[in-house]
Structure formats: structure tokens, C-alpha cells
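Moderator note: this is an archived Q&A kept for reference. The question asked for a predicted structure of one protein chain; the sequence and the answer are reproduced below.
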Amino acid sequence: MSSEFWLISAPGDKENLQALERMNTVTSKSNLSHNTKFAIPDFKVGTLDSLVGLSDELGKLDTFTESLIKKMAQCVVEVMEDAKGKVYENLLANGVDLTSFVTRFEWDMAKYPAKQPLVVVVDTLAKQLAQIETDLKARTAAYNTLKGNLENLEKKSTGNLFTRTLADIVNKEDFVLDSEYLITLLVIVPKPNYSQWQKRYESLSDMVVPRSTKLIAEDDEGGLFTVTMFRKVINDFKAKAKENKFIVREFFYDEKEIKSEREEMTKLLSEKKQQYGPLLRWLKVNFSEAFIAWIHLKALRVFVESVLRYGLPVNFQAVLLQPHKKATKRLREVLNSVFKHLDEVAAASILDASVDIPGLQLNNQDYFPYVYFHIDLSLLD
């Protein structure tokens, strides 16, 4: 089965109920789709004028909500980092997987009372979704700032010996500290030049302390060596070292700075851990709320569109179709032939839609003889 659904409706008179029955028989026999009834409550209709305005508002709210739940699904992916395979286990609606929720949809009377005017129901949904979006922005901004700071620190500790932080490499014991005359420098030596370094470092300048070199770190390209000398020969030593392809790394051991860098990393890791659980829980709960609201919006759209299309008194039947993969074209043809009597012009224009006229965009791809709305559950594509 595909992850998309077609929510359609047809008038509820005898002729159209027979047409729906015929559609069910054909789609089932030809294995085109899995169909279920989609129950929509009897809402207060109000005036047709107000329904036209509501139809437009619902269209915008539907697009906004779909975008919001896709954002939230993506946030779950980003937050779960190492456990991306388990993302769909966390994208549930009312504790069940999304397909089950959609195929067994029941209107939530407690949350969105159907006895209220339609405008009030839509306003309740709109406010709820706007609040979720506001909270999402605030929560993810805080988490992403923290994550960004941590990534910057991690980058510093994973670069090569020329660029990476040395806070997690050097020790106090590697340096001569608090001496008025002596200083310890760090020198990066390419791997092939190790023996050359050992032979030459003492004679690169006057006043280099004999046997003062020690290898304290390595990467794929070279090693980091300490060397101690008198302060006054630093510049001379640097110049001679460079001539021999030994690079002095600008670094002076500062215990306070190193301690604060280490503490910063520990603090950020701890904060990220603390935020991870609550943020993931919030995303799960509010993804579920937003998704449930989205399917309620689809139900409202079918109701409003069906009343505008088929007239009063309210009498229509909504059906949810889950097309089989690769059967959508044939399914569309079956629906067209079963319901073309509802709108001969629309049915004919669908048959002609395969003719593309350059520069002319006929926006009839979502207009059919029957009311139709699309639900796509592939939220992470």
C-alpha cells in the first residue's frame, strides 16, 4: 500500500450511494485501493456565503498544518541523531501509527464540539496550531543554539594538529612554567621528518635545552613535540625550524583557559542531555496533537466542499481510499467513470488533461466530478 490517501465524497442520494457501491466493488476486485467509510459529524452549516469564506481559510490552514507537521517530523529526526531508524516509532497520533489513525478516524467531540458554529471550530483549530508553531520555534531555537555551540567545540577537537584545540592533549607537566628565562614551545613535525627533528632540534638555535623534546600527540600527518629554550631565542628558533619544515604552533599553556574550555564542553554536553528528553517528549506529544488537528481539518474541508458542491440539505457520503502502489492512474479512471454524471465538464477536462499546452496552466489537476482531498503520510521525503 502507498502512504497516500484520497478522501472523496459523493451525494448521499440513492443513485450516488449505488455509484459508491459500484466503486467499492470495482476497486476491490481489481485490487486498486483499500476503502473505508470516513465519518463526519453533522455540523451547523450557517450561510453559504460564510462557507465560501471558510473554504478559503481551511485551504490555507491545511497547507500551514501539513508544513508544520513535516517540520516537527524533521525535528524528531534531528534530535534523535543516532537513532534515526526509530523515528517513525515516535511519530504517532493518539498512540497509534498514522495510517491506523487515519483509517479509523473519529471526530473528537470533546475537543472540537460539532454543535458549535463551524467558524468557532475552525478558530479553535487555528489557535491550537499557531500555539504549537510558536512553541516549536522557541524550543528548537534553544536546542539548535546549544547543538551548534557543541558542534563548534567538537570540530575544534577533531581537526588536525595545526587547528585543533590542545586543551584535551597537553598537560601541565609538558611545560616549563613560571620561569623568567625559559619557555616551552610546541612544534609540529611531519612523520617522515621525526628522525631529522631528533638530530637537529638542539642545534636549530643557541640556548635550546638539550634532551628537552617529547612527542605528546600524533595525527595521520605528523606529531606534536615539546621543546624548551631561552625566551630570547624564540624568533630565531621559529625561523630556523620553518626552514627545516618544522612548524611552531602558537600556544602558551594557560591553566585557567584550558580548564574553562574543558568545563565548557562538559557543561554543553550535560545541557544537551538534559534538554534531549523533554524536547523529544514535547515533539512527540505535539506532533500527535498537530497531526490529529490536520485530519480534523481534512474532515471539515470535505464537509464544507460537499455542501458547496452538492447543496442543501446536507446529504453526502465520504470515503477514504488508500490506493495500491502503481494503481493510481487506473483508480482515477474508475472514479471518473463512476462519478462523471456529477459534473460532465470536469470529467471531460480530466480526460483532456494529458494534453500539455506550453505556457498555459490549467489548474484542474485537483478538480474532479466528486469532492477530493489528498492526504500524504510520507512526511520525511
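Archived answer notes: The first strand starts at residue 4 and ends at 11.
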